[in-house]
Design goal:
The protein is of the alpha/beta class and 331 residues long. The protein folds into two domains: 239 residues, Zn peptidases (Aminopeptidase), CATH 3.40.630.10; 70 residues, OB fold (Dihydrolipoamide Acetyltransferase, E2P) (Beta Barrel). Helices cover 19% and strands 35% of the residues. The strands form three sheets. Strands 1-2-3-4-5-7-6-8-12-10-11-13 form a twelve-stranded mixed beta sheet, with helices on both faces. Strands 9, 14, 16, 19 and 21 form a five-stranded antiparallel beta sheet that branches. A hairpin with a 3-residue loop joins strand 1 and strand 2. The chain starts with a strand and ends with a strand. The model has no long low-confidence stretch (mean pLDDT 95).
Length: 331
């Protein structure tokens, strides 16, 4: 990488990528696709920390759709979803504008960790603070410089370290637009989840954006089948919004609709083994996990507190008191 005053030269790219400090969609020529590095803050050497942004502006005015990934730096499946989306998009036949941000949390991504480099979770402090700490300023400038004027948001996540997820959607089920966006993703499970204001989805909803969260599998890896599923859902959304012509891909099976969900936790520490698989239904009283001491002696068994479906689960054997066991969805 070579940084000039206003461009970045990177391997594999013929043309230098412009550096900008504000994403100004109206300055883009209709029918074009552009790449940018959007400067947010500086590191300890005074060098810019920038996020990669792709923009396709259609020939006709229409909705503005944003697709974001890696708000948590080790949640990677959304990156190739966005890359492939922009390989597929022809702005000459597009109505409206699509924004893709494959990595929101650049410091976390570079350190291969979930949180920002000051150990705060970006998705718990949106929309940030102009005069706050490192991560708060970063979040504030991200919202101010990249996320204004957006009509729809698909925010792509995965499970966290030591856990695995089904392909599921978090959406405000009481909002018909969000409900439709969720259904278009053809997920395995949809959870009714009005977003906390401190998340990216919640902050964007506060600006009037219709937003959902896609939980696309597991952290620290690329999963081809889930990447394909995520891309299918994004294409369905674009077609539904009238931004491109095409046929919406129907689901192979209807999603399981959960009115709520919650995690079950350990009440002591030890070696944890969780039995049910993701998307498996469990009945009240079913044995779902065992906890053993370091010598292999049984400490206790855990049972399902009620009927439900397994949305996600822990796969890390080391469990302190208060560790997650499984994420139970209630229909």
């Amino acid at each position: 990488m070579h940084i000039n005053n206003d461009t970045v030269e990177i391997l594999g790219t013929e043309n230098p990528v412009p550096i900008v400090e504000l994403l100004s969609l109206e300055k883009m020529e209709p029918g074009t696709q552009k790449r940018y590095f959007l400067k947010l803050v500086e590191d300890g050497l005074g060098l810019p920390i920038m996020i990669p942004v792709l923009v396709a502006r259609g020939v006709k005015e229409g909705p503005v759709l944003a697709v974001t990934a890696a708000v948590h730096g080790n949640e990677l499946n959304g990156i190739p979803v966005i890359q492939r989306l922009f390989n597929d998009i022809d702005p000459a036949v597009l109505t409206g504008t699509i924004i893709g941000i494959p990595v929101v949390n650049v410091p976390g991504f570079l350190q291969m960790q979930r949180k920002f480099n000051d150990d705060f979770d970006l998705n718990r402090l949106m929309p940030g603070n102009e005069y706050g700490n490192n991560s708060e300023v970063y979040a504030y400038r991200f919202m101010e410089r990249a996320m204004q004027g957006i009509d729809y948001l698909l925010d792509l996540h995965t499970a966290s370290f030591g856990r695995i997820n089904s392909y599921y959607i978090r959406a405000n089920w009481n909002d018909p637009v969000s409900r439709k966006l969720a259904m278009l993703q053809n997920p395995q499970i949809i959870v009714n989840s009005p977003a906390p204001d401190s998340t990216l989805r919640g902050s964007m909803q506060g600006l009037g954006t219709k937003a959902i969260t896609l939980e696309v599998g597991d952290p620290n890896r690329f999963q081809k089948s889930l990447i394909r599923s995520g891309l299918e859902g994004v294409h369905n959304t674009i077609i539904h919004l009238g931004m491109l012509d095409g046929d919406i891909e129907p689901p192979e099976t209807d999603p399981v609709l959960c009115k709520k969900s919650y995690w079950i936790y350990t009440d002591s520490g030890g070696i944890l083994q969780v039995f049910p698989q993701v998307t498996q239904r469990v009945k009240k009283g079913d044995e779902i996990a065992v906890l053993k001491n370091i010598f292999g002696d049984l400490i206790r068994k855990f049972h399902a507190p009620e009927d439900g479906i397994v949305i996600g689960k822990s796969v890390h054997p080391t469990a302190q008191t208060g560790s997650r066991i499984l994420h139970l969805g209630i229909e």
